[in-house]
């Protein structure tokens, strides 16, 4: 009976909180925006240092877990083996953790840094091009994935080796005791995880919808307006709720596998039609700067001078990736049974990092090349990055096969979009059904509908940014949950015969 009550507590309290935030953000959007922005400004101004240190700590411990004496321990019984092939596993990881963000920002972010760098670097120059790739690699490279891996690794260990529930709170049990982990403190952690996941997925739904609408407008002249955006959300909702209901081994797996091949094909063709030598040079030089300046860049923040660039880019990203850590971590844990700790870290941290950096080098260079070779006026490039959802299609349109590449990019975006959303539905259903590894379909449908309705409401109210910002405020508390997770995981690993 106690378990049933606990299960309902997380579910109902989460629904109430999500409902309050939804009504506030939609009906009173102005006041919601003011509060969200003020709170985020305090966090990034007064606690920027903590975000930077936290990401380095997460990375350090993940390296230790992988290459220390515990690396050969399996996430399951000693004779367990992976449920999914490497290709399927990578596809699910990538689609859930980064896919839709990389398609959205792959062209626009490096181009923005190239045109509007910081630290007194000359805009639209070789120096700003170098700055663009180093910082893109920093933002989409090893630190975000190490952050995801902290929760993913610990939860997979507790779920499959210790036979615990698929809840965030179980990871803290060795540290705070079973009573608190199953009591109010554990419930607070699980509810925070639900809220961060809802906010993250709803924001991605909205951003993805804007880019899909922009793509259809650019390619086919479909108008950019609220009616079209609502139609897109409804169609995508059927796809992601349907694939989530069909289960991990059917709908989610099929969409993820297919999209992995589509994305690899798109990447390859964009490399071929783009500036090949310049792209290879940009990748090699960017990786050199990224690796060589890793610690100074990762910990860079000004003591007295302006930190607005760091606040709006790096600190925003770190807060955003920490906000996504519960969602991505739970999903990654769910699909990683049977892997060794070392295999998990290499697969979850190293492989996606390399893929993300290659993606950034190819797509980022498509845009920067237009400026460096004078193929497109700087003013036009500035217009493209001012609306990043359009930038991808504007830049692709300047190259051979531009229309076809834009069409394939649109398909890939939709598929990544669906993969992120159905992963989110699956995780929300797990967290709100007492950690059930295969949650009921009714719960998946409910969370899917809630996400779609919230995304539509926010677009009608005039923007997604406030919800994204408020989720970062909630996620601030997750820094401490993740520190606790590391301590608890270290404690329980010491009992293993390594």
Keywords for this structure?
mainly alpha, Amino acid/polyamine transporter I, 21 helices, 80% helix, globular, BCCT family transporter
Could you explain how this protein is built, in words?
- It is built from 21 helices and no strands.
- The model is unreliable at 1-7 (pLDDT under 50).
- It has a single domain (2-493), classed as Amino acid/polyamine transporter I (Up-down Bundle), CATH 1.20.1740.
- It has helices at residues 2-27, 29-46, 48-67, 86-105, 108-115, 126-140, 142-160, 173-176, 178-182, 184-220, 226-246, 248-273, 276-292, 294-298, 308-334, 341-372, 378-386, 388-396, 402-431, 441-461, 465-493.
- The longest helix has 37 residues, at 184-220.
- Shape estimate: globular
Largest sheet: none
First-last Cα distance: 38 Å
Q: Extract low-pLDDT stretches.
A: 1-7
- The whole-number mean of residue pLDDT values reads 89
**Rg (C-alpha, Å):** 22 Å
CATH architecture: Up-down Bundle
- The H-and-E topology, N to C, reads as HHHHHHHHHHHHHHHHHHHHH
Number of separate structural domains: 1
- The number of helical segments is 21
Compute the number of strand runs: 0
Strand content: under 5%
CATH classification class = Mainly Alpha
Helix content: over 70%
CATH topology name, in short, is Amino acid/polyamine transporter I
Category from helices, strands and their pairing: mainly alpha
């Amino acid at each position: 009976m106690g378990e049933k009550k606990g299960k309902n507590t997380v579910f109902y309290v989460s629904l109430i909180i999500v409902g309050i935030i939804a009504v506030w953000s939609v009906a009173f959007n102005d006041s919601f925006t003011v509060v969200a922005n003020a709170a985020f400004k305090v966090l990034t101004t007064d606690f920027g240092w903590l975000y930077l240190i936290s990401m380095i700590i997460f990375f350090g411990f993940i390296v230790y877990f992988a290459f220390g004496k515990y690396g050969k321990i399996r996430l399951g019984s000693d004779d367990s083996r992976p449920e999914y092939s490497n290709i399927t596993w990578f596809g699910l990881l990538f689609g859930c953790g980064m896919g839709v963000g990389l398609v959205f920002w792959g062209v626009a972010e490096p181009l923005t840094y190239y045109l509007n760098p910081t630290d007194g670097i000359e805009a639209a120059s070789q120096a700003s091009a170098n700055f663009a790739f180093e910082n893109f690699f920093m933002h989409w490279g090893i630190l975000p994935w190490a952050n995801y891996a902290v929760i993913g690794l610990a939860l997979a260990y507790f779920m499959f080796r210790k036979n615990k529930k698929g809840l965030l709170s179980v990871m803290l049990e060795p540290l705070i005791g079973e009573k608190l982990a199953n009591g109010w403190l554990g419930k607070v952690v699980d509810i925070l995880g639900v809220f961060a996941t809802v906010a993250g997925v709803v924001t991605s739904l909205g951003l993805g919808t804007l880019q899909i609408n922009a793509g259809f407008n650019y390619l086919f002249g479909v108008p950019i307006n609220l009616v079209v955006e609502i139609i897109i959300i409804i169609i995508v909702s059927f796809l992601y709720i349907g694939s989530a209901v069909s289960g991990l081994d059917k709908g989610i797996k099929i969409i993820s596998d297919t999209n992995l091949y589509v994305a690899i094909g798109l990447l390859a063709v964009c490399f071929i039609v783009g500036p090949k030598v310049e792209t290879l040079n940009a990748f090699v030089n960017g990786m050199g700067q990224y690796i060589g300046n890793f610690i100074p860049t990762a910990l860079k923040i000004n003591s007295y001078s302006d930190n607005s660039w760091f606040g709006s880019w790096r600190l925003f990203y770190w807060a955003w990736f920490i906000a996504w850590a519960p969602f991505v971590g739970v999903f990654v844990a769910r699909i990683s049974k049977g892997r060794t700790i070392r295999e998990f870290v290499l697969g979850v941290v190293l492989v996606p990092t390399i893929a993300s950096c290659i993606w950034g080098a190819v797509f980022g260079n498509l845009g920067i090349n237009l400026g460096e070779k004078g193929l497109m006026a700087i003013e036009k490039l500035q217009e493209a990055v001012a609306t990043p959802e359009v930038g991808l299609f504007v830049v692709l349109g300047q190259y051979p096969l531009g229309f076809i590449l834009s069409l394939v990019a649109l398909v890939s975006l939709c598929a990544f979009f669906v993969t992120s959303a159905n992963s989110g539905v699956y995780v929300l259903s797990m967290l709100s059904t007492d950690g059930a590894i295969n949650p009921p379909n009714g719960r998946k449908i409910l969370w899917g509908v809630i996400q779609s309705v919230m995304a539509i409401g926010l677009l009608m109210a005039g923007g997604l940014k406030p919800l994204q910002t408020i989720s970062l405020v909630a996620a601030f508390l997750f820094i401490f949950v993740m520190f606790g997770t590391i301590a608890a995981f270290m404690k329980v690993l010491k009992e293993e015969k390594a």
